[in-house]
Design brief:
two-stranded antiparallel sheet; disordered N terminus; N-utilizing Substance Protein B Homolog, Chain A; 7 helices; globular; mainly alpha; 3% strand
């Protein structure tokens, strides 16, 4: 489903000179990939991407993916506490979970990204990589998380 080759740049382009959206998309894909292993090393995933696709990932994408792993417990607690009654974290699709983790990481730890931008970009990623209803779900949960953070 997630083809990192379509969102990373080739050797002729500095991966840090791409748009913030592309960097965020790379971070989402790295974060998504970490959901499939208990022993995931982001640097190893990034190296594998470079080796297998002859592409490079931005420093921002790697920083976000690492930050999400380090802060996953706090991020997941925010998601869980803002789910509607009857919903559990385990019920959320891996795509939606990875998208929301990235947005919440940005809300909490990336000062130069406005909360509204994190939410909008997360909704766009959900539209691109998930089923149609997931973007509304992601928007609702992230809106609730943003209110919680701002309290």
């Amino acid at each position: 489903m997630c083809d990192i080759e379509n969102v990373v740049e080739n050797d002729s382009i500095n991966p840090n000179d791409i748009s913030r959206y592309k960097k965020r998309e790379q971070a989402f894909i790295l974060s998504f990939e970490t959901l499939f292993s208990d022993d995931t090393d982001v640097d190893e995933l990034a190296d594998n991407t470079v080796d297998s696709n002859d592409v490079h990932l931005s420093d921002y994408a790697i920083m976000c993916a690492k930050g999400i792993l380090v802060n996953a417990e706090e991020i997941d607690a925010l998601i869980s506490s803002n789910l509607k009654s009857g919903w559990k974290l385990s019920r959320i699709s891996k795509v939606s979970l990875a998208v929301m983790r990235l947005a919440i990481f940005e809300m909490l730890y990336v000062e130069d990204v406005p909360v509204s931008v994190s939410i909008n970009e997360a909704v766009e990623l959900a539209k691109k990589y998930s089923v149609p209803d997931d973007s509304s779900f992601v928007n609702g949960v992230l809106g609730a998380v943003a209110k919680t953070i701002n309290e």
